[in-house]
Amino acid sequence: MWTFFAKALHYSSSSATATVTTTASNFISSAFLGKLLFGETRALLWWVGISVTLCGLLLLHTASPHTEQQHSEKKDK
């Protein structure tokens, strides 16, 4: 987990994106491995929570990374 988090920090434009990406992948891999290895099931609330997390992750990855930089350049002028 820490190796993937460090790689995500290296390739990401912000630490928030790396944190949410690593957390979401951790939840999803835990769910699949729990099902395969132990036959665990997930409650409806868990699926709602991971769906909200994935929607937030989608918003973070589709947002333009230059928005903050352009905003700060406008303030300087």
TrEMBL record:
Full protein name: Transmembrane protein 42
Classification via SUPFAM superfamilies: Multidrug resistance efflux transporter EmrE
Keywords: Membrane, Transmembrane, Transmembrane helix
Spans through the membrane: 44-64
InterPro entries: EmrE-like (IPR037185), TMEM42 (IPR039632)
